[in-house]
Specification:
- Strands 1-2-3-6-7 form a 5-stranded antiparallel sheet. The chain has a two-stranded antiparallel ribbon with strand order 4-5.
- The chain contains 3 helices and 7 strands.
- Strand 6 and strand 7 (128-134) form a beta hairpin.
- The protein is globular, with a radius of gyration of 17 Å.
- Helices cover 29% and strands 28% of the residues.
Amino acid sequence: MSLLPIVEVPDPILRASSAPVERVDDELKGLVQSMFETMYDAPGIGLAAVQVGVPRRLLIIDLQEPESDAEDAPPVRRPHVFINPEILHSSDARKSYNEGCLSIPDQYAEIERPDVVRARWTDLDGRQQEGEFDGLMSVCLQHEVDHLNGILFIDYLSRLKRDIIVRKVVKSRKDRAKAAVL
């Protein structure tokens, strides 16, 4: 497998609705493996296929939380694959999280979302699954499903804040490109 390039704003592919995955096959499984390698390398905790230039309804999540509350506890990988995910229900209770995004590097904002969601998806074995998620897993799932619908976390901000963030990302990319040439 290999690392994939992560698409950054303002690339228009990030605004497209992703098409359903038609079948779970070896090609899809290879893409999933490459997506995990890319996400871990970035590093991140979630990645939608559209963020690596593949506009299909596929996302991965691994919160990489420590096994215990001990300060030196290493993170444990618990990879989750969601194929054609749907959010079936969202709680009325809401919670704010400081969100970031691999497609909007080094930019963060407090975003309020439903605290609990119920979702349905297909797993990597082709089986239908349904489950309820809360906390960070709920936030991450909503964030990544938004990607599949062409929505970015900055869309929950005022237009002014959104435009400032996009300008910062574009400037940073230009600065990195200049530095690479020198």
